């Protein structure tokens, strides 16, 4: 049994129970297109900070500004591009144009290395602006394009598997980015590396043309008051007022990822400058434990398809805390164990939250709903967690110098302990979400009776 709309839309297949299923070719689309985007986000999250320390200045406040303002930029991009996608009822054009434009912005960011270092204020502005432009365009390709597309092509009964893949992709990007990119940077240095990435994204855009098709059952959602009214209408958060469970999920996103952002943007610099690993070996120490963590996401998918979200989230927070308490210890095997544990916790809670959120999203607002997620998953954590981490580094961090002899500080044990002390707060919104979910189920049962 199948439904077909046009040669530019996916053919929908259903099993004997009427549930939508995706073909192997469609899963290949998801993996290739999604992984391409996550490799670039890996570069921004892990190698952009290392680039700043190596080529600009070892100043955690520069990274803090980059993280906070690029978070705002990518979120605004999600609303703009997500609204456009909702109005068109299509995601393919955004991915097609977005990946090519994304590649150009990556190359432009690399050019900041060659600007005059005597005026550090102007150089900082250029670096931060370059990251913001890259993030705004990246939101077109990945968040309001690819992520919204994965919601379009799935339904509630099969989102556990999709949630597992979507949760694995950022980690797979971090693994490949850690294992490969560190060694590549050692060989060819940063700017040539950024050129390679730009060309890769341009080729990815060509791949999108041949591989990606829109879901045929997405109905265009056009606000009669116009595009910009539709963009800014989301900021009244009326959707969250009407949808209590979606609000709970967003709060869990915020609380957990505030703790995550305290240390994650500084993790590569911690491994290189505090722990003393080379750039390539730092990638191995980061990447190999995350490979070991990957199987747990597929184990989680079975539980998530059966609605067992909350035990997974409780366990995820607990092992994240244990991992953070181990990561800073300067013994390679212990550091790797810590990264494995907080990596597993991050993957599993992200997977659970993404599946729950996709199930809560209104069918006509998949693109704009991604913008709401960005506020709680990206903007709030990056604007709160990252500055806390930067403050701790500047006042309690490890004194060091970069390759130009510029002095500064890198992360040490204080950042990981602070994040570990923050993480238990996540139990509060998880417990609230569980209570509201059970109340929701009781109301459904009462209405049926």
Concise account of the structure shown:
The protein is mainly alpha-helical and 449 residues long.
Can you tell me about this structure?
- The protein is mainly alpha-helical and 449 residues long.
- It has one domain: Growth Hormone, Chain: A.
- It is built from 16 helices and 5 strands.
- The protein has a 3-stranded antiparallel β-sheet with strand order 1-2-3, with no helix packed on it.
- Helix 1 packs across helix 5, helix 5 crosses helix 11 and helix 5 crosses helix 13.
- The radius of gyration is 21 Å and the shape is globular.
- The two termini are 33 Å apart.
What is this structure's SSE topology?
Blueprint: E1 2-3, E2 12-14, E3 20-21, H1 24-56, H2 60-88, H3 92-110, H4 120-152, H5 159-211, H6 227-233, H7 238-242, H8 244-263, H9 267-274, H10 279-293, H11 295-305, H12 310-327, H13 332-360, H14 366-396, E4 398-401, E5 407-410, H15 413-422, H16 427-448
Antiparallel strand pairs: 1-2, 2-3, 4-5
Helix pairs in contact: 1-2, 1-4, 1-5, 2-4, 2-6, 2-14, 3-4, 3-5, 4-14, 5-10, 5-11, 5-13, 8-13, 8-14, 8-15, 8-16, 10-13, 11-13, 12-13, 12-15, 12-16
């Amino acid at each position: 049994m199948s439904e077909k709309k046009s040669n530019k839309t996916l053919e929908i297949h259903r099993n004997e129970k009427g549930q939508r299923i995706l073909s192997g070719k469609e899963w290949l689309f998801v993996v290739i297109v999604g992984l391409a985007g996550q490799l670039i986000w890996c570069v921004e999250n892990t190698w952009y900070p290392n680039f700043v320390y190596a080529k600009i200045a070892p100043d955690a406040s520069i990274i803090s500004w980059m993280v906070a303002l690029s978070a705002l930029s990518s979120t605004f991009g999600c609303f703009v591009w997500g609204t456009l996608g909702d109005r068109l009822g299509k995601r393919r054009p955004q991915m097609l144009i977005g990946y090519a434009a994304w590649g150009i912005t990556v190359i432009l960011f690399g050019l900041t290395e060659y600007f005059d270092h005597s005026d550090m204020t102007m150089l900082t502005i250029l670096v931060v602006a370059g990251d913001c432009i890259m993030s705004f365009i990246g939101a077109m390709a990945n968040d309001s394009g690819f992520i919204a597309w994965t919601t379009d092509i799935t339904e509630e009964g099969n989102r556990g598997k999709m949630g597992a893949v979507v949760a694995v992709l950022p980690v797979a990007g971090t693994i490949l980015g850690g294992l490969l990119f560190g060694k590549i940077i050692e060989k060819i240095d940063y700017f040539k590396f950024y050129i390679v990435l730009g060309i890769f994204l341009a080729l990815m855009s060509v791949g999108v043309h041949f591989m990606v098709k829109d879901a045929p059952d997405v109905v265009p959602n056009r606000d009669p008051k116009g595009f910009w009214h539709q963009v800014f209408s989301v900021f009244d958060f009326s959707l969250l007022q009407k949808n209590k469970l979606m609000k709970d999920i967003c709060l869990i996103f915020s609380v957990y990822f505030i703790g995550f952002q305290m240390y994650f943007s500084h993790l590569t610099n911690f491994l290189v400058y505090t722990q003393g690993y080379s750039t390539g070996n730092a990638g191995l120490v980061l990447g190999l434990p995350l490979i070991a963590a990957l199987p747990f996401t597929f184990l989680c998918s079975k539980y998530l398809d059966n609605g067992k979200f909350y035990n997974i989230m409780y366990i995820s927070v607990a092992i994240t805390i244990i991992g953070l308490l181990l990561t800073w210890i300067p013994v390679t095997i212990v550091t790797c164990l810590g990264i494995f544990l907080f990596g597993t916790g991050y993957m599993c809670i992200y997977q659970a939250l993404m599946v729950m959120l996709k199930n809560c999203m209104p069918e006509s607002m998949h693109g704009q709903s991604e913008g709401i997620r960005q506020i709680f998953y990206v903007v709030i954590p990056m604007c709160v967690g990252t500055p806390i981490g930067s403050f701790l580094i500047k006042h309690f961090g490890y004194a060091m110098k970069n390759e130009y002899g510029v002095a500064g500080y890198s992360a040490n044990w204080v950042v990981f302990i602070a994040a570990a002390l923050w993480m238990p707060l996540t139990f509060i919104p998880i417990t609230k979400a569980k209570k509201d979910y059970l109340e929701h189920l009781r109301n459904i049962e009462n209405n049926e009776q």
